[in-house]
Amino acid sequence: MKKMFVLLLGFVLLPGLFTTVQAAEKMNFYANITAIQPIMDEFNAGQDIDGIYTRISTSKYLATVLTEFSAGKLQADVLQSPLPIMQMLKEKGVLAPYKSPAAAGYPAWAQQDDTIIQFGIEYVAPIYNKDLVKPEDVPTRYEDLTDPKWYNKMVMPDPSSHATTISWLVGLKEAKIFGNDTSWRKFLKGLAANKPMFVKSFGPTPAPIESGEKVLGISMPKYIISKAPAPLDWARVDTLLGTPRGIAISANAPNPKAAKVFVDYWLSQNAMQLLATKVGEYVLAPGVFPPIDGISQVKVLPIRSLSDDEIRSWGKEFRKIFYAK
Amino acid sequence: MFKKPTLTTTLIVIVGFLTLCPVIMLLLGSFSQDFVSFGQFTTVKYVEAYTDPDFAAILWNTVIFTVGSALVATLLALFLAYVNTRTDLPFKFIFKVIAIVPMMIPHILFSVSWVLLLNPSNGTLNRLLMDLFGLKDALFDIYTLPGMILVEGLLDLPIAYLIIAPAMSAFDVSLEESSKVCGASNLRTLMRVTLPVLRPAILASAILVIVRSLASFAVPSVIGMPGRIYVLSTHIYRNIASGFAADFGKAAAIGMSALAASITLIYIYRYLTSESGKFVTISSRGFKPTLIKLKNAKYPLFVIVGILSFVLIVLPVMVLFYTSMLPYSMVPSAKAFSMMSWNNWVEVLKDPISLLSLKNSLFLGVVGATIGTTLSIFVSYVIVKIRSTASGILESLSFLSFSFPGIVIGVGFMWFFVRTPIYGTLTALLIGYIATYLPYGIRPISSAFVQIHSHLEESSRVCGAGPFYTMRRIVIPLLIPGIVSGWILMASMFLRELTLSVVLSRPGTEVLAVQILHFAEDGLWGKLSALGIIMIFISSLLVILAAVLGNKLTKMEVVNK
Q1: ipTM value for the complex
Q2: Minimum distance, in Å, between the CA of residue A3 and any CA atom of chain B
Q3: What is the chain B residue with the closest CA to A153?
Q4: Which helix (H) or strand (E) holds B66?
Q5: Cβ partners under 8 Å of residue B260, min gap 6
Q6: Phi, psi (5° rounding) for residue B150?
Q7: Which CATH number fits domain A122-242+300-322: 3.40.50.720, 1.10.287.110, 3.40.50.10420, 3.40.190.10?
């Protein structure tokens, strides 16, 4: 009977022990950034830690993380998302402070926070189909997008609802790309007059451009890499803007040591090089650029983090302009 | 048959637990000031949601979209079910499969296929028609309400077909013959006898399609948003997406109107079919479904059904195959054909996450549909045979999760499951699927139940048979077409389920639809199409297996008798 009891106890406890040993070697990474499997693979190959990538879309990111956190079931060791979301998570106490030595060479503004390190910019640019747009017609300034020759030929995320696009449009104003507010409003009205086709986010913007349904769009240069050999190129405007991407360690990380190892790896020159080369991301590691012609010369600026109230208010304003009949 | 109050109460507890939990969480969230379900009480989300100046126009669009889709799906289903079950049309088996193919295609892919065919700039069909007739402008614009209705109607056609076809196949033709003997014309017989007797199935189909299209997101986002046509689901998305802190509580507040509409529709349905005796076609008298000989109309009708099936269903699937062979989205051209390869297929079949998704989805499809159909048989029995207030409550409960727009209900389930030990497991997905898509099992089975006279059960009981024996030997064999329909609807739905999965699946519990969504978000349409076709192939296999098994069981029962 005793033997039976010990045997049964063994059966019950062994899987638990096994799970504990396994859990110590795991690192769960919650991220909205896409196509990063090559970076995860390299991390897993070089470390004694099993890095697991949990992909969560931006629209569900905060709801998922906060729900798990409030129920005490947040499985993430490391979190990555656009900076405004990371800042909200920090306010709610989800993140833990960590200064990674790997971020030493990053711009000062990217590492000024004691918790969130900014490692990249979700850069936005006019993208066009190089088979269908003649070289002399390619826009060289943002104002060129308002030329009536682009009527019904453009695609962009819905400027009344897509948070990143709303932030980008406001960013153009705050970065004084057009000099003053009047010119900025003129740009908005001109863009609206060209009746761009609206899609829900940046994800669906390249498909209509590459298929020729539209020839030009407000999109992201990273698609030139990730959608190769599609005939895509970016219009060489002076300055590009984008929402910064942040990374941080979870306050209740199940594996805090593994979390630090991963953040250090993520911010390393090697991982950032992979992110730029394989995914086409604009990263802040010094001297690392995506292999897209002209990107290393262009000025890429981070957009101020707009509060959700500001985004909704601007969304309503843009709805009046872009949906005017 | 069973101890009725006990059975009804037990089912109310089971179904109520499954469907009420996420809805209660959403209700709490809609009154919570915070992003999560428990926060300080507020009504501000309702005030904001229902005082939006655009709301009236959005509601109007939603009514046209949902009713239009229900009309397209139900009329097409009636026509196809009639020719497939009641006539001697050649190659019917192919048309039976074609009618349910859209059920197996991920909705986002089917919508994109139609965009590639009918967009006004370079849609393949539009270009073809312009070249053929020398037109300056495109003949069709998919980015319109009629375009949305066409695609949603086609996507929901299998739901309507799988509800109407079993009812049509169980139709006692002696009723029509009596009408004709009394001097009625074919048309008068159709209008006064055939359609009224099929009323429960037709209404069930229309209501289910309305509720489904109310919750639909793929067509409104892929076709409606570029055309600047917003319906309830895209309005909810717009509210969620405006800001990084997506307020699912406010989305739930808007979703409550969809829930109210669905419950109202269920009560209208119950009222319109309250005299259930009118719709009985299988009684102790015995019945024999006979085929109508089409004679000279046989081949012309075959050509019409063939063309209809080709243009509406086969062509979009061909577009998927074409896209799966290309490195990026291209209209058909010499350059496109020269760039075709199997690369996307090879990459998908080598991708470990895609293979794991395939395994998980297959498990969820087969096991989930089997459990779901079993539960649906009992629920349908109570709904149809015990027409009490409690059975009305049970019917409404079964629609609760189903009625919510998909992008919201997934979060409701997450808010609920995170408080249980099954969060992040396949079991959570299994329970979520069954709870949400229970009407897919209940509707076809209840439509079949409606046609079975209670005399049959009573005769069995008089002869000394127990309730389970009567169910097994009398009721279930007569229900087989309905059960097969329910199983097929559930299995193919579970194979391509996205809205719950995208919130609940975690590493290790990936499913096909989430993998497809990731490919879509990365703009990898080639891989997306390849995986979509694999999904269609697996669903087709399951459908064929279920249909063959259903036929065998029906024949076995006939032989035994």
Answers
A1: 0.79
A2: 31
A3: B121
A4: helix B55-86
A5: none
A6: -60, -50
A7: 3.40.190.10
pLDDT (0 to 100) of residue A8: 41
In tens, the pLDDT along B427-453 reads 999 999 999 999 889 988 887 887 777
Shortest CB distance from B329 goes to which of A35, A166, A210? A210
- Beta bridge partners, A28, equal A52
Burial class of residue B427 (count of CB atoms within 10 Å of its CB; 0-12, 13-18, 19+):
middle
The yes-or-no answer to whether A23-120+245-293 and A122-242+300-322 have a common fold is yes
Verify whether the Cβ–Cβ distance B329 to A315 is below 8 Å: no
Nearest CB to A211; choose among B143, B329, B507: B329
Nearest to A88 among B38, B245, B520 (CB): B245
DSSP codes joined into one string, B257-283: HHHHHHHHHHHHHHHHT--GGGG--B-
Q: What are phi and psi of B109, to 5 degrees?
A: -70, -40
- For residue A67, the chain B residue with the least C-alpha distance is B36
pLDDT digits (tens, 9 = 90+) for A194-230: 999 999 889 889 999 999 999 999 999 999 998 889 9
- pLDDT for B143 beyond 60: yes
Q: Provide the whole-model pTM.
A: 0.82
Which of the residues A74, A152, A155, A200 would you substitute to probe the B interface, choosing the one with the greatest number of B C-beta atoms within 10 Å?
Answer: A200
Helices (H) and strands (E) in chain A, counts: 11, 12
Calculate what percentage of chain A has a pLDDT beyond 70. 93
> Does a structural domain hold residue B311?
yes
Which residue blocks in A163-322 are alpha helix, DSSP H?
163-174, 181-193, 206-211, 222-226, 256-267, 269-274, 308-322
Q: What are the chain A neighbours of B245 within 8 Å (beta carbons)?
A: 62, 85, 88, 308
**Can you tell me the mean pLDDT for B95-114?**
84
